[in-house]
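Problem: given the chain below (77 residues), write out its structure.
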Amino acid sequence: MMDDQIKLAVHENEIKHLQTDMDKLVKDMEELKASVAEISKTLAEAKGGWQVLMVMGGIGAAFGSVVGWAIEHFSGK
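Solution.
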């Protein structure tokens, strides 16, 4: 009878440690999810920034081409 009580106490103690570890893992997973969401948001913003820069570069190149064409066309050469 005493051995059964000791075994039960040991099992309860092991379960308590396992539950503590599981709670810690759940907390860590929630922190990881938040970090991944933040990284994803930052990457999406950076992607949009690059697209704006590409559009601005295209507009600048087109404007430069028009100015070059106008100078050549109206300079009389």
